[in-house]
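User: I'm curious whether this sequence folds into something compact or stays loose and floppy. Could you predict its structure so I can see for myself?
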Amino acid sequence: MSTIVIASGGTGGHLYPTVAIAEAIREMRPDIRIVFIGTRDRIESHEVPRLGFDFYPIEIQAPRKSVRHLLRFPIKFWQAYRSSLSILRELDARVFLGGGAYLSVPVAYAAKKKNLPIAILEINAVVGRANRIIAPRADKIFISYAEAKKQFSSSLAVKTQLIGTPIRDSLKENILPATGRDHFGLEPDRKTLLVFGGSLGARSLNEAMRLSAKHFLDAGFNILWQTGASANIAELQEAFPETTRICIRQYISEMPEAYAASDLVVARAGASTLAELSTLGKAAILVPYPLAAMNHQEKNANSFRDRGAAVVILDRDIVSLLQHEVFKLMADDTKRSDLAKKMLADENITARNVVAKYLIEQFDSKNR
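Assistant: Here's the prediction. I'll summarize afterward.
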């Protein structure tokens, strides 16, 4: 069976927008096989199969500055390219979509070798290194922010299409707050704080929560806390054994239920997270990742703050300010409602369908 191949992962921020597109293709054309290529040790290796898509691993890492790594990188890249070429041949691939992670680069080179239509998705306002490399070889560039177009040359800018950030349709399920809380074993009638730092976690957020969780519990809140891999989950679960008002997980896959359960969200300001928050209209405290390329998370967060759609706390201040801001917002239902209304936007709903239709059109043209 001929396939559409997607290379994406490394983080949930890169993976889930492409999963949204894959799910849209599956709904529109269940006869088309969709296969993801990624790495064995990151989120895509377990999430892609869990969501019902085939997964093929390759070995690749972004180049690092150490001499040892730089010397080995050309060999590793060549091996990843050869593996990708073999996978594309085996799958009878007809179209390729890159999701922005560096792992997509060798697959894109292999797709170009096979003369496949190539599309890339850039979900950030600042174009990532992988997409900068692939863009000259791409036939179509889908962007989530208008600012991204300015970063491509004029010959590439004509290939871009502004669509917003694709999100999974399941996030729009009509789940009652009490149902979401019950799903995680939380008390259904209590205000609930949802905290997550992305699929890899955030050390500063985890430290702030470690110091604040008891105070939030004493105030009567439920807590739903995704730690990521950067925390000792067993140690935290032992420190907070109360099971009906706090749920601590290394990773939360049931995000529709998690968002439904929450009255207030504390999260990083990655493009994928912001798209989900704005599609659902959730009151949020944003904590931008300070080492993001060209500080794009802080720029993203500030744009939401400036229109009154979110509260922003810088990473260096989160330990000292988290309790104050959470207590202030949890006590003010009117303020939370105002944040949620200003956060709400609908432009991300159709983004997944736009990309899906393009890929299907390219697939059909290659199958004629």
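Summary: Residues 170-343 form a domain with the Rossmann fold fold (CATH 3.40.50.2000). The chain has two domains: 3-167+349-367, 170-343.
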